Amino acid sequence: MDAMELLWPLESDSTASTLSDTDLLSFYSYPEPLNAPYIRANLASTVNGNVAAAGQSAGIASHADRILFGRLRRLADVILVGAETVRAEDCRGARRRDDVRAFRLARGQSEVPPVAVVSASANLRPDSRLFTDTYVPPIVLTTEAAPKENVARLRAAGGDVLIAGETRLDIDRLNEIFAARGLMRVLCEGGPTLLGSLIAARAVDELCLTITPFVGGAQNLSAGPEVEPSAMQLVSVLTSEGSLLLRYRRDDEAPSPQRAGK
Q1: Which residue intervals of the chain are DSSP H helices?
Q2: At 180, which CATH number?
Q3: Beta bridge partners of residue 161, listed in sequence order
Q4: 112 in helix, strand or coil?
Q5: H or E segment to which residue 141 belongs
Q6: Residue 185 within a domain
Q7: Residue 61 lies in a domain
Q8: DSSP-derived pairing of the beta strands 185-188 and 78-82
């Protein structure tokens, strides 16, 4: 693994310190104990704030971003993604590697985290890699309004199809589903529409944002209706090969910018 340097926070008399692979996994561990699902969002953007090139996030990813991507997956109980991302990037299931398997089993987790896809219409291809190239069946979070034939098709393909809302995703219902299955460490990998929904519901507990050393690309970090800004607290800043790896946690105690200005 290429060196990850911790820039902040530091001891008062320290300079930047290098984190080993073991350090990185410990550094990004979820809070414990967890009595409810903890949603961590992970995404990368260019310097000018775009999250994709040619329709895919891989087009703007840096090596440091790929390293963090893999390490955060090791720590997660479930990987949450939107249907748009699955279709655009032909997502597959998480890989089953012996070293990762041993690490997860030692922590009391499943060998491989399932991928949970949000699709209000259950409009996913049953012959896509999400269903055909996976070690564990995907979870499909859909709605009561989804066409019955779509639901039946995905279940026939092996998908674990669950209702998580009437006509759109209900975040409370999503959390209930995850909690009932012991999936407390949630890793959201986008895309913008799903992230926008989580932000609107104030459901993002933590956000890991890697700023890669590129400009250009397309798509904003999140999409959806405008919502009142809510505060996030900067937790750490790392750097590697020109990338900045920022981590924020939700700060329920801080006033919003609008309230603070009144």
Answers
A1: 21-27, 63-75, 83-89, 98-106, 129-132, 148-156, 171-180, 192-200, 257-260
A2: 3.40.430.10
A3: 140
A4: coil
A5: strand 139-142
A6: yes
A7: yes
A8: parallel
Residue matched to tokens 């299955």: 181
Residue in this structure with the two tokens 């309230």, named with its chain if needed:
259
pTM of model > 0.85: yes
Q: Is there a domain that residue 25 lies in?
A: no
Q: Is 129 exposed, middle or buried (0-12, 13-18, 19+ CB in 10 A)?
A: middle
Residues spanned by the domain of 185: 32-260
Contacts of 107 (CB under 8 A, 6+ apart): none
> Rounded to an integer, what distance in angstroms lies between the CA atom of residue 37 and that of residue 59?
31
Walk along the chain (262 residues) and give the pLDDT tens digit of each residue.
Answer: 678 999 999 876 677 789 998 999 999 999 999 999 999 999 999 998 888 776 677 777 899 999 999 999 999 999 999 999 999 889 999 988 999 999 999 999 999 999 999 999 999 999 999 999 999 999 999 999 999 999 999 999 999 999 999 999 999 999 999 999 999 999 999 888 899 999 999 999 999 999 999 988 777 777 777 888 889 999 999 999 999 999 999 998 877 666 555 5
- What is the distance, to the nearest Å, from the Cα of residue 135 to the centroid of all Cα atoms in its chain? 19
Say if 227 falls within a structural domain. yes
Measured at the CA of 31, the angle between CA 8 and CA 50, to 5 degrees, comes to 55
